[in-house]
UniProtKB/TrEMBL annotation:
Alcohol dehydrogenase iron-type/glycerol dehydrogenase GldA domain sequence ranges: 10-174
Superkingdom, taxonomy of origin: Bacteria
PANTHER family: ALCOHOL DEHYDROGENASE YQHD
InterPro entries linked to this entry: ADH_Fe/GldA (IPR001670), ADH_Fe_C (IPR056798), BDH-like (IPR044731)
Annotated GO CC locations: cytosol
Keywords, ordered alphabetically: Oxidoreductase
Gene Ontology molecular functions: alcohol dehydrogenase (NADP+) activity; butanol dehydrogenase (NAD+) activity; metal ion binding; methylglyoxal reductase (NADPH) (acetol producing) activity
Protein name: Iron-containing alcohol dehydrogenase
Chain ranges of the Fe-containing alcohol dehydrogenase-like C-terminal domain: 188-379
SUPFAM superfamilies xrefs: Dehydroquinate synthase-like
Pfam annotation, one family: ADH_Fe_C
The family this protein is said to belong to: Belongs to the iron-containing alcohol dehydrogenase family.
Length: 384
């Protein structure tokens, strides 16, 4: 196990009705920016509950944050917050809204080119405090310090990390997920699944606690994934999905572990180039990556197959069967595992992603930093 440091300052309030705690947990003198996407928070009851909780606070709202939040829209929110002298953000939605809120929190007090915040190209001196009300479990963004932002003008989808944008508070109410479309639920399950895999399925590293945490999250998602689709108002299933997705990227799973994230690097480029949902890119790329990197990942694939899927047989057969079981699970969640099923030409995808990775200087990916853009091209060609 590698050396590590860990700190997570986010206060989590989990369960039905916890939005009401915003009234006491947000400072009374705060001038609040309510940041959200479309109209779903009014349909699922979150907006009404937040309005009631903030009835004694000064607050204004800004809506329209896109899936894969866009820099141009977020800068409008930054200017709105500055003009209204708002100094506390409440982000309501899934990972996209919360990621966008982290950028806004960092950008409002920043002097200079805010785009340089992305990629950690300038130091941050401060950020507005942030509370997150989660309505779409998938990314764990509600209690970590990472954010992914898109800029369509330049075809960039890039990340930044900074402890200053840790949410101070996260409200996790599973009942807010009851009205989600099946597509978003399936995406959320797969997103959380692959987030866990990226930190787990590399090579054995004697991080036994972290391995068991990862395997527990994966088994939970496999167990409750079909239930969340079949029974939208099954509180136990939705609660376990919400907590599994949170814990996948809370920070504990990857401590002291080698981590991959090559599937995410390729997936981000596929989203920008072809408009695919983030989770759907991961369902395509991950099995193809595993087959391409089978030799270096065989030991962990075998462990994963035996412990998570309960597979038996010789090591190689178990490892290959684990890949097939994962693909079948993704399809069960409603996600295709090949580019052609989205009418995307594999050669065009491979060439486009390789070009983007070179442009973004992503020249060495994977747990061993030995996966090149040419390797990524080869992986995507096989994801036909």
């Amino acid at each position: 196990m590698h050396a590590f440091s860990f700190h997570n300052p986010c206060q989590i309030e989990f369960g039905a009705g916890q939005i009401a705690k915003l009234a006491s947990l947000i400072p009374a003198q705060a001038r609040v920016l309510l940041l959200y996407g479309g109209g779903s928070i009014k349909r699922n009851g979150a907006y009404a509950q937040i309005s009631a909780a903030l009835s004694q606070h000064h607050w204004r709202e800004f809506s329209g944050i896109e899936p894969n939040p866009e820099y141009e829209t977020l800068m409008q929110a930054v200017e709105f917050a500055r003009s209204e002298q708002l100094d506390y953000i409440v982000a309501v939605g899934g990972g996209s809204v919360i990621d966008g809120a982290k950028f806004v929190a960092a950008a409002v007090p920043h002097q200079g080119d805010c785009w340089l915040i992305i990629g950690n190209r300038v130091p941050l001196k401060s950020a507005l405090p942030l509370a997150a009300v989660l309505t779409l479990p998938a990314t764990g963004s509600e209690s970590n310090f990472a954010s992914v932002i898109s800029r369509r003008e330049t075809q960039d989808k890039l990340s930044f990390k900074n402890p200053l944008v840790f949410p101070k508070l996260a409200i996790l109410d599973p009942t807010l997920t009851y009205s989600l479309p099946a597509r978003q639920v399936g995406n959320g399950v797969v997103d959380a699944f692959v987030h866990t895999i990226e930190q787990y399925l590399t090579y054995p590293n004697e991080a036994r606690v972290q391995d068991r945490l990862a395997e527990g999250i994966l088994q939970t998602l496999i167990e409750i994934g079909p239930i969340t689709l079949a029974e939208p108002e099954n509180y136990a299933a939705r609660a376990n999905l919400m907590w599994a997705a949170n814990q996948a990227l809370y920070g504990m799973v990857g401590l002291g572990q080698p981590q991959d994230w090559a599937s995410h690097a390729m997936g981000h480029e596929l989203t920008m180039l072809f408009g695919l949902d983030h989770a759907r890119t991961l369902a395509i790329v991950l099995p193809a990556l595993w087959r391409y990197r089978f030799a270096s990942k065989a030991a962990k694939l075998t462990q994963y197959g035996r412990r998570v899927w309960g597979l038996e047989g010789n090591d190689q057969d178990v490892a290959y069967a684990a890949i097939e079981a994962t693909e079948a699970f993704f399809r069960q969640m409603g996600l295709a595992t090949s580019l052609s099923l989205y009418d995307i030409d594999p050669q065009a995808a491979a060439d486009g992603v390789a070009t983007q990775l070179i442009r973004h200087n992503r020249l060495k990916l994977g747990e061993n930093l030995d996966l090149t853009p040419e390797d990524c091209r080869a992986i995507l060609i096989t994801a036909a």
